[in-house]
Amino acid sequence: MEYVLHESPEHPEQFVFYESWKDEIALQEHLASPHYQEYRQAVEALLDTREVHRLKKLTV
Q1: DSSP letter at 60?
Q2: What pairs with residue 16 in β-bridges?
Q3: How far apart, in whole angstroms, are the C-alpha atoms of residue 49 and residue 12?
Q4: pTM of the predicted model, to two decimals?
């Protein structure tokens, strides 16, 4: 797993949090974990919007 936080230079109030997971099973286990559920509840009121984009890494 890898977490990378990005901030927009033009809009410092906008952030992108990039996560990379070993596989779908690892991601689903994380999403079901108690610490993740607690995090989601704790930050919900702090977010204007939340968008999730699932991407596939390409190798060349």
Answers
A1: -
A2: 6
A3: 15
A4: 0.74
